[in-house]
Design a protein that fits this description.
Blueprint (H helix, E strand, L loop, with lengths): L29 E4 L2 E5 L3 H18 L8 H4 L11 E7 L9 E9 H7 L8 E2 L1 H4 L4 E10 L6 H18 L1 E11 L7 H11 L8 E2 L17 H7 L2 H8 L3 E2 L4 E3 L4 E9 L1 H21 L1
Parallel strand pairs: 6-7
Antiparallel strand pairs: 1-2, 2-3, 3-4, 4-6, 5-8, 7-11, 9-11, 10-11
Length: 291
């Protein structure tokens, strides 16, 4: 799952992230489209709303098993939440407060991981090659969208928000664990094999599942795979990463708590920032032309 909770770090956050507003400057992310807005969490109430949405999606809708304390609080949380940035999509037509939050993503940069002592993915993967990569890196996780908002507009806003964040912090590489439904590798032989043979990361960016959790992705012969049909059947989030030129690490990991099989996704951000730059170049030209 992107990304499941850490059982040994319970507790709701007591402070909001510090990077949503930097001094008196403009917000790092603030994009509107009609009643929809994407921005970073600015208060503890914002984070609580994201945790409530995550709980509704992961545990109530998808049947994940909450660890102690989560079911009573009806919140998905762990020790990263008070240290990282939370990207939110809000629908202001639903009013204010928690009801307005309809999508979220959790963003962990080097500083937050250093403060915590690790990236979240290190519970499943050896990401030392990614950590050694020059420049800023970003771990993406806890992605979820309200069931009534899974169409193109909200997903586009989430990606626009990530692109703005990547552009602002000059992120070189982003990564995270993406999920396939179910915990039987044989039932997932086709997508796992396809991802390994067609999208394996180059050595310098290749995370590897920890030895005790490693599941070989090479389940089928390459000739038995129809690449176009297999790609079309992948979960939308994984397809989105692959369309950005994403890669997968070596080895899958079974997540019994979330009833999923995880793969590590790695994306060099060149294409993301290029698309974002072109968008804002067009926006600037349109504004100039209208003046």
């Amino acid at each position: 799952m992107i990304l499941g909770p850490l059982a040994d770090h319970p507790g709701l956050p007591i402070a909001a992230p510090s990077t949503a507003l930097e001094g008196n400057r403009s917000p790092v992310v603030d994009i509107a489209s009609g009643p929809l807005q994407v921005r970073l969490a600015e208060t503890s109430a914002d984070i609580d709303a994201a945790q409530a949405l995550r709980y509704r999606i992961f545990y109530e809708a998808m049947g994940a098993r909450p660890v102690s304390g989560m079911a009573q609080a009806r919140r998905d949380y762990d020790g990263f939440d008070a240290l990282c940035d939370h990207l939110l999509v809000l629908d202001h037509s639903r009013g204010g407060g928690a009801d307005a939050v309809v999508g979220t993503y959790r963003l962990i940069r080097r500083a937050a991981a250093s403060q915590f002592g690790a990236f979240y993915s290190e519970a499943e993967y050896d990401v030392s090659r990614l950590i050694a990569y020059p420049g800023e890196i970003l771990e993406l996780g806890r992605s979820c969208v309200d069931s009534g908002y899974r169409g193109r507009p909200v997903m586009q806003l989430l990606w626009s928000g990530i692109a703005a964040y990547v552009f602002h912090y000059d992120i070189a590489v982003m990564f995270g664990c993406a999920s396939l439904p179910g915990t039987d590798p044989e039932a997932l032989a086709l997508p796992l094999s396809y991802l390994y043979y067609h999208h394996l990361a180059p050595p310098a960016l290749r995370a590897r599942a920890l030895p005790e959790r490693y599941v070989d992705m090479r389940r089928l012969d390459p000739g038995a795979i129809d690449p176009a049909r297999t790609l079309a059947a992948l979960p939308p989030l994984i397809k989105g990463y692959l369309r950005l030129g994403g890669f997968v690490g070596d080895g899958a990991v079974i997540d019994e708590q979330f009833n999923t099989t995880d793969v590590c996704i790695v994306v060099k951000t060149d294409l993301v920032t290029e698309k974002y730059s072109r968008h804002y170049e067009r926006k600037s030209k349109d504004t100039w032309a209208a003046a």
